[in-house]
Amino acid sequence: MIIPWQQLEAETLNNLIEAFVLREGTDYGEQERSLEQKVADVRRQLQNGEAVLVWSELHETVNIMPQNSFRG
């Protein structure tokens, strides 16, 4: 189920994005990006509709996924 990110408290949304960024462990190449930059990137993707917040009833977790890979 998609969770409308706009309905979350700002602090809650930020905490979800930070947790997502910290667990991803993505290699950004030669240029290392700060946590703040990574959070801003994910926030921008949510705002642009490129990514969505998804609640998994099975795992009782929230995840951030690319919009085009979500099958609701």
From TrEMBL:
HAMAP family: UPF0270. This is UPF0270 protein BTJ39_13560. It comes from Izhakiella australiensis. Coiled coil: none annotated. The lineage of its organism: Bacteria, Pseudomonadati, Pseudomonadota, Gammaproteobacteria, Enterobacterales. NCBIfam families: PRK04966.1. Belongs to the UPF0270 family. It comes from the Bacteria. InterPro entries: UPF0270, YehU-like_sf. Signal peptide: none annotated.
